[in-house]
Amino acid sequence: MKIASCDILVIGGGPAGLMAARKTARKGVKTLLVEKESQFGLKVCGEAVSADALAEAEISPWESSICGREINRVLVYPPQEEKKVEISAGAIGYSGGYILNKMAFLEEMGRSALQEGTEIWMAAVPNQLVRHDGLFRCTIDIAKGVQLVEAKVVIGCDGMNSLVARTFFNRKGYRRISCLQYEMANCHLADPTRLEIFLGSNVAPGGYLWIFPKGEGLANVGIGTQGVPARKCLDKFIDAHPRRFQKAQVLSMGAAPVPIGGQIEELVQDGLMLCGDAAGQVIPLTGAGIHSAIAAGRMAGQVAAEALIEGDISRKRLSIYPEQFNETWGKRIADSLKAEQLIVKLSDQELNQLADIFTGQDIVDLANGFNLTRVGIKLLKYPGFAATIARGLL
């Protein structure tokens, strides 16, 4: 069998993989990216991103990649929906965000990677990865049959069922939540610039439900749950909100698990790196992972290329990547996990009480792992929450 060779093999064509490949190729390193699907962006996703995430991707929002209008508000509904809490992007110092056309967005990232010199194989399914004489050999199923690829460095950006992670890494504590989403037309949405989030045991046990507007009555309506069927909960919610959905129709449905157990402990080995969902680099309380994946891919790609050029692809040299990532993202992920483990245990009554206490800033800080200490100190003033949440946050 003829062996194809490259310097760096990137497995997975999501945000992390495409960013990593762009950065390695930009350094003049021979890069091959393989993606198992026939097109980018097929995995179901709420598609909400901040403006900062697009800046991280070095891509400006353009008409074909953005659905609807700029998002500048979020409404968070506790079980008693009239107690909703509003989060205004401007009021908390954020620049707003967007609902992506994820396929178009990733296609643009793919074009950027190609322009930098990346070779991309689509519908290429890796099924075995081994070390061989100081290199890595990956067996890949392609349309013409089976191709063997040899690489000096492998960057695993291949999602929850990562071949790279399963073969070489220990992902102890790796947890996932079941998510299901409808793309719905003819929804009645009062404000097309507003995201809506719903909490409670009767809505989404162990998770939350979302309505993300995509313009002209189109919306992503999805749910993440633990321990109960996601579709049953989502259909029940839609039936219970006829004003929004009486005339709505489901255009498509998708399901996918999302990692919520926090970042795994080990991200690199000699010649190996993990990024994105494969590494658990998702904000646990929100399930948001696009921005963190792009950031991880950028850092991993730069470090891998520089290490290869220097002739040192040891674990120690590649560890610069997790060190950089943890400076900005590691604590956020860990703190959001801490908050998730506390919030998921709250009763509906306690969630309603929190809605009376929390501001939009409190929710943003808690959900994203920004400033748990401040939120914990605030909750110490409320005896009912001092034992259940506040001390856990502190």
Helix and strand arrangement:
Elements: E1 3-11, H1 15-26, E2 31-35, E3 48-50, H2 51-56, E4 66-71, E5 73-77, E6 85-88, E7 97-100, H3 102-116, E8 119-122, E9 125-132, E10 135-142, E11 145-156, H4 163-168, E12 176-185, E13 194-198, E14 208-215, E15 218-225, H5 230-239, H6 242-245, E16 249-259, E17 268-269, E18 272-274, H7 290-310, H8 315-318, H9 320-343, H10 348-357, H11 360-368, H12 372-379, H13 383-393
Parallel strand pairs: 1-2, 1-11, 2-8, 5-13, 11-18
Antiparallel strand pairs: 3-7, 4-7, 5-6, 9-10, 10-11, 12-15, 12-16, 13-14, 14-15, 17-18
Helix pairs in contact: 1-3, 1-7, 7-9, 9-13, 12-13
Summarize the structure in words.
- The protein is of the alpha/beta class.
- The protein has 3 domains: 3-44 and 103-173 and 261-318, FAD/NAD(P)-binding domain, CATH 3.50.50.60; 68-96 and 176-259, 2-Layer Sandwich (D-Amino Acid Oxidase, Chain A, domain 2); 336-393, no CATH class.
- 36% of the residues lie in helices and 29% in strands.
- The protein is built from 13 helices and 18 strands.
- It has helices spanning 15-26, 51-56, 102-116, 163-168, 230-239, 242-245, 290-310, 315-318, 320-343, 348-357, 360-368, 372-379, 383-393; strands at residues 3-11, 31-35, 48-50, 66-71, 73-77, 85-88, 97-100, 119-122, 125-132, 135-142, 145-156, 176-185, 194-198, 208-215, 218-225, 249-259, 268-269, 272-274.
- The strands form 3 sheets. Strands 1, 2, 8, 9, 10, 11, 17 and 18 form an 8-stranded mixed β-sheet that branches.
- The longest helix has 24 residues, at 320-343.
- It is globular, with a radius of gyration of 21 Å.
- The termini are far apart.
- The mean pLDDT is 94.
